[in-house]
Amino acid sequence: MALDHAILVSLLEKPGSGYELARRFERSIGYFWTATHQQIYRVLKRMESDGWIDVREVPQQSRPDKKEYSVAALGRTVLAEWLHEPIEPESVRHELAVKIRGAAFDDPAALIREVERHHHKHTERLAHYLAGERRDFTGPDAPEALDTGEELQHVVLRGGIAYERMTIAWLEDVLATLRRLGTAP
Question: Which ranges carry the Transcription regulator PadR C-terminal domain (predicted)?
Answer without folding.
Answer: 92-179
